[in-house]
């Protein structure tokens, strides 16, 4: 399937973050003021160069991309790392220093575990180096360009702006500099917190034993957090210049006049936003019968009307790009399209460049999984609802966990971090199951798209199977004062819920700052808050948050009683 969907709802589990020690209660006031407790997009405060008053532990990670030859080097931390459990070099070793490994390591430090992180490439993994961080830098540019180019929009404010232009290298430098800064701050924060950063290719040799380079270490518990790489279907030749993946596109080495984007999921949509703002024409190639598969259909339809139809974008749906040949000797990039059902040749495109945005594949080769009798499934490491690795016989591998893109439950950086934190809770004595239906996702187009929980078709299927009714409530950004003040009234928020109990099944938002607005809903799902309770929450006026306020107030709940929603059963 040629759609770059990084959110999978096929494996819901359960979220409920709580401290495992009673001291967390007595120290509540201290923790509220502790900068270490603040997170930005899955990263800690220290990652942005902000000092923390605490120091303790550190992270270990193996990169989310192709790993370099190991240099068998230990970066000593400046803070004490505690003492490991008797008979082990470390309490916890994490293979992979992406956002997932980083989140697990910092939480392990807070719990007093002696921690190490193995990284074979660069700290930060896909998100920091080739994903969320640099892509948001490019999208920040595209958002400003789009606004400055919209003469009608500017005139509505009474503003007159000369023709907007851009410096391609300057835009590329902005993305690269941001990634470098966050990567550097991430590394320094781990050192200062006492996490041992071990450089090399991490391999599991056996139970509680890991090798990196020529060095073998032992750990009471091991977490695999090696992430993913761009998925390139068969028949597509990537040259890194005219046929590229998202890794190459983020470098913005050139802006093609006409680019085909294979896949219309998150990755494809975001890059279409960037390229069209910078002047490119875009053609989507999507294997499914509609664009933006995976989004709630109603939200997807509205998003297509705003993000696709008015822009220099056309599309082919229900087709595979069976063969893509890079530009060469003055000839353009050629793309052969075949019907997704009949496999017959349907069309041939000639474009200046092609971006392969068909999703991501787990990076799990070379981990030594055969040493512990573990067989991957389509490259993913099989795990249970507690991220414990399952071997080929269906048995749990003791003291071995896998988080993030490598297990395929939900391929989002913040999901990986949440999974890592959940694992640390378990290894420190508190049972914890993460509810993946409470984890939000966002697409940072202009306007943005965000979602949490079930889509309407998924909710209706669940309702039919379990014998209950669902309710739908909607609110428009056109009724929001702040959105109108910004001349950004195009948008919709949608709530899917159970009228009989007030349980929130899903929330979907398309509109200005949708990615920021979704968290009130995701936290409500995580905490089991019912609509009849949350509708009394007070929101500042005038703010965009009132869109969500009105959404909950619009729901028609039959139940008058308030009680926590039953804890969802993990899949």
Automatic annotation (TrEMBL):
<feature type="binding site">
    <location>
        <position position="286"/>
    </location>
    <ligand>
        <name>NAD(+)</name>
    </ligand>
</feature>
<feature type="binding site">
    <location>
        <position position="359"/>
    </location>
    <ligand>
        <name>NAD(+)</name>
    </ligand>
</feature>
<feature type="binding site">
    <location>
        <position position="136"/>
    </location>
    <ligand>
        <name>FAD</name>
    </ligand>
</feature>
<keyword id="KW-1015">Disulfide bond</keyword>
<feature type="domain" description="FAD/NAD(P)-binding">
    <location>
        <begin position="90"/>
        <end position="420"/>
    </location>
</feature>
<dbReference type="InterPro" id="IPR036188">
    <property type="entry name" value="FAD/NAD-bd_sf"/>
</dbReference>
<dbReference type="InterPro" id="IPR050151">
    <property type="entry name" value="Class-I_Pyr_Nuc-Dis_Oxidored"/>
</dbReference>
<feature type="domain" description="Pyridine nucleotide-disulphide oxidoreductase dimerisation">
    <location>
        <begin position="439"/>
        <end position="550"/>
    </location>
</feature>
<dbReference type="GO" id="GO:0009570">
    <property type="term" value="C:chloroplast stroma"/>
</dbReference>
<dbReference type="InterPro" id="IPR016156">
    <property type="entry name" value="FAD/NAD-linked_Rdtase_dimer_sf"/>
</dbReference>
<dbReference type="GO" id="GO:0045252">
    <property type="term" value="C:oxoglutarate dehydrogenase complex"/>
</dbReference>
<feature type="disulfide bond" description="Redox-active">
    <location>
        <begin position="127"/>
        <end position="132"/>
    </location>
</feature>
<feature type="region of interest" description="Disordered">
    <location>
        <begin position="1"/>
        <end position="22"/>
    </location>
</feature>
<feature type="binding site">
    <location>
        <begin position="263"/>
        <end position="270"/>
    </location>
    <ligand>
        <name>NAD(+)</name>
    </ligand>
</feature>
<dbReference type="GO" id="GO:0004148">
    <property type="term" value="F:dihydrolipoyl dehydrogenase (NADH) activity"/>
</dbReference>
<feature type="binding site">
    <location>
        <begin position="226"/>
        <end position="228"/>
    </location>
    <ligand>
        <name>FAD</name>
    </ligand>
</feature>
<comment type="subunit">
    <text>Homodimer. Part of the plastidial pyruvate dehydrogenase complex (PDC) containing multiple copies of three enzymatic components: pyruvate dehydrogenase (E1), dihydrolipoamide acetyltransferase (E2) and lipoamide dehydrogenase (E3).</text>
</comment>
<dbReference type="GO" id="GO:0046685">
    <property type="term" value="P:response to arsenic-containing substance"/>
</dbReference>
<keyword id="KW-0520">NAD</keyword>
<feature type="active site" description="Proton acceptor">
    <location>
        <position position="541"/>
    </location>
</feature>
<dbReference type="Pfam" id="PF07992">
    <property type="entry name" value="Pyr_redox_2"/>
</dbReference>
<keyword id="KW-0934">Plastid</keyword>
<comment type="similarity">
    <text>Belongs to the class-I pyridine nucleotide-disulfide oxidoreductase family.</text>
</comment>
<dbReference type="GO" id="GO:0005739">
    <property type="term" value="C:mitochondrion"/>
</dbReference>
<dbReference type="InterPro" id="IPR004099">
    <property type="entry name" value="Pyr_nucl-diS_OxRdtase_dimer"/>
</dbReference>
<keyword id="KW-0809">Transit peptide</keyword>
<dbReference type="GO" id="GO:0050660">
    <property type="term" value="F:flavin adenine dinucleotide binding"/>
</dbReference>
<keyword id="KW-0547">Nucleotide-binding</keyword>
<keyword id="KW-0676">Redox-active center</keyword>
<dbReference type="GO" id="GO:0006103">
    <property type="term" value="P:2-oxoglutarate metabolic process"/>
</dbReference>
<dbReference type="InterPro" id="IPR001100">
    <property type="entry name" value="Pyr_nuc-diS_OxRdtase"/>
</dbReference>
<dbReference type="Pfam" id="PF02852">
    <property type="entry name" value="Pyr_redox_dim"/>
</dbReference>
<keyword id="KW-0274">FAD</keyword>
<comment type="function">
    <text>Lipoamide dehydrogenase is a component of the plastidial pyruvate dehydrogenase complex (PDC).</text>
</comment>
<feature type="binding site">
    <location>
        <position position="405"/>
    </location>
    <ligand>
        <name>FAD</name>
    </ligand>
</feature>
<feature type="binding site">
    <location>
        <position position="202"/>
    </location>
    <ligand>
        <name>FAD</name>
    </ligand>
</feature>
<feature type="binding site">
    <location>
        <begin position="411"/>
        <end position="414"/>
    </location>
    <ligand>
        <name>FAD</name>
    </ligand>
</feature>
<protein>
    <recommendedName>
        <fullName>dihydrolipoyl dehydrogenase</fullName>
        <ecNumber>1.8.1.4</ecNumber>
    </recommendedName>
</protein>
<keyword id="KW-0560">Oxidoreductase</keyword>
<dbReference type="InterPro" id="IPR012999">
    <property type="entry name" value="Pyr_OxRdtase_I_AS"/>
</dbReference>
<keyword id="KW-0150">Chloroplast</keyword>
<keyword id="KW-0285">Flavoprotein</keyword>
